[in-house]
Amino acid sequence: MSVERRAHPGFLAWSNPLAWWWALLIVVSGANIAVWFLLFRQLPEQPTSGLGSTSGIELMLLLSAAYVFGCAFRSFLPRADVQRICLFDTWLSSVAVGRSVATVAEIAFGVQWAITLHRLGTMTGSDTSLNAAWAIVPLILIAECFSWYAG
Length: 151
Fold this sequence. Notes:
Helix content is 68%, strand content 4%. It is mainly α.
C-alpha cells in the first residue's frame, strides 16, 4: 500500500525555501503567459514574410500556447509524480492529470522544433536538418510512451 505525502499548508511561510521556489515558478510562469499574450496580439497583425503564412504563425501560436499554459499549470500545482508528493491536495494534482498536461506540452514543444528545423532545412538545403525534423516527433512520442509506462 503506497502512501501519498502532501506538503503541510504551513509551507507558504516566507522563511521556507520551498515557498520562495514556488513563488519564483509562479512569477516566471506569469511572465511567460504575459509574453505569449503579447505575441498573440502582435503576430497576426504582422505582414506575412517569406518564412511562412498566417496559418503557420497561428499553428505556432497554438503549439506555444499548449506549452506555455501546460508549464504554467505544472508550476502552479507542482508535483513529483513518482514520489507521490504534491503541494496541494486536489484532483488536479493527480498523476494522471499532471502527466496528461505534461504530455500535451512536451509534444507541442517537439512539434514546434520539428517545424522550425524543417523550415530552416528547406531554406538552407540541409538534409541533416530535414532528417532531424522528421525524427523529432516520433522520438518524442516514443519518449512520452515510456514516461507513461514509468509513471
